[in-house]
Amino acid sequence: MATYIALCTFTDQGIRAIKNSAERADAVKELAAKFGATMTQLYWTMGQYDLIATIDAPDDESATAFALATASGGNVRVQTLRAFSRTELAGITRRLD
After folding, report:
1. For residues 80 and 76, what is the distance between their CA atoms, to the nearest angstrom?
2. Rounded to two decimals, what is the model's pTM?
């Protein structure tokens, strides 16, 4: 499984419905399974981003489909980053030799 970091900002619609944010997060967590993914962590944050999630997905296509499905709900905009563990990075950098 690959790991992804999702940086999310609320849309106008999402902030108007902020009182339901925890329930929406539960629904999104269930939605992840439809794409073979797992939302392992979710944090509501202060600053540039309103939510930060960690997601495990089998591949980029699954992660992208999940992000698009989440964003299509209209409550958040999502920027997804592929994250690499220390072990994965070590394998990547070995290729540089």
Report:
1. 12
2. 0.91
